[in-house]
Specification:
By secondary structure, the chain is an alpha/beta fold. It contains 13 helices and 12 strands.
Length: 310
């Protein structure tokens, strides 16, 4: 019987739909037991992961029967896709299933950072009244959001931002200047440095590859407006965290929100600790109850379809 190993959390109805046709080993904390994971995949025909399980050459060597990998998300930097291709292993990302969740996170966080007022709860509860300072918040309408990467998530973010009256720019070297996506969306195309200089909000939507590692470094942060805000829901290695912390501490940036980090979980001694106007969340930008259902259902469907029609 086809055996499916699931090493991270998955929506239970989707797990049960797999159990209807396969032998399923659902162990959501297996990601934290590397030796156990390598042992379990020895007899696996399919493996389903999120972003923390490393599907590398070591794992592939331990899984001689493996024919398919399902990714409960879209980023593939934890999966050695070249090695999978060489071994004839199909890789299925959940493309599109969590786009709305990420887009909502970006737009909501941009509003919080621009307005600033929502960060005063502790002061008000302590009897302080920072009304003058909190009255300097900014409205979202009329502001410019710059999207670094204009794939599915970037385009969904653009739609939501436009509904709020934001002007949208984007940079994506993989998208031709005459691509219909630009004219159909009403989004302005910019080179990266021009986008950084023009945007009030910069949101990152790129994979972590050699060309994007450290993309937002000290020099590029210096190109941003002094009151601009940066949001990263892509991958942690895209942003130089020490440079970002320094820019926030020096007041050279209006604020930032990071949902992803170069090392996850974030180290306690990270330079980001204590930086002002900074929102930190634990890689959940694309994870809501609804998106988890969509992502899990899509991957379960892809795995079922693959083994029905190999």
């Amino acid at each position: 019987m086809t055996r499916v190993v699931v090493s991270e959390f998955m929506d239970l109805p989707a797990v049960e739909s797999l159990r209807d046709v396969f032998d399923v080993d659902y162990t959501p904390d297996l990601v934290d037991d590397r030796a156990g994971l390598l042992a379990r995949v020895a007899g696996a025909d399919a493996l389903i992961v999120r972003n923390r399980s490393r599907v590398d050459r070591e794992l592939l060597a331990a899984a001689p029967r493996l024919r398919a990998v399902g990714r409960l998300g879209v980023g593939l930097d934890n999966i050695d896709t070249a090695a999978c291709e060489a071994a004839g292993i199909a890789v299925f990302p959940a493309t599109g299933a969590n786009s709305l969740a990420v887009a909502e996170y970006v737009v909501a966080t941009a509003m919080v950072l621009l307005r600033g007022a929502y960060l005063s709860g502790n002061e008000v509860a302590a009897g302080q009244w920072p009304r003058a300072r909190m009255s300097q918040g900014r409205e979202t309408a009329g502001k410019t959001i710059g999207l670094v990467g204009f794939g599915g998530i970037g385009r969904m973010t653009a739609k939501l931002a436009q509904c709020l009256g934001m002007r949208v720019l984007a940079h994506d070297p993989a998208l031709a200047p005459d691509a219909r996506a630009w004219s159909d969306s009403g989004v302005g195309r910019r080179e990266l440095d021009a986008l950084l200089a023009e945007a009030d909000v910069v949101s990152l939507h790129v994979p972590l590859v050699d060309s994007t590692r450290g993309l937002i470094d000290a020099a590029r942060l210096a190109r941003m407006k002094p009151e601009a805000v940066l949001i990263n829901t892509a991958r942690g290695g895209v942003v130089d965290e020490a440079a970002l912390a320094a820019a926030l501490q020096a007041g050279r940036l209006g604020g930032a929100a990071l949902d992803v980090f170069e090392s996850e979980p974030l180290r306690a001694d990270s330079p980001l600790a204590g930086a002002p106007n900074l929102i930190l969340t634990p890689h959940i930008g694309g994870v809501t109850r609804e998106s988890n259902e969509r992502v899990s259902s899509l991957i379960a469907e892809r795995i079922r379809g693959f083994f029905r029609n190999p």
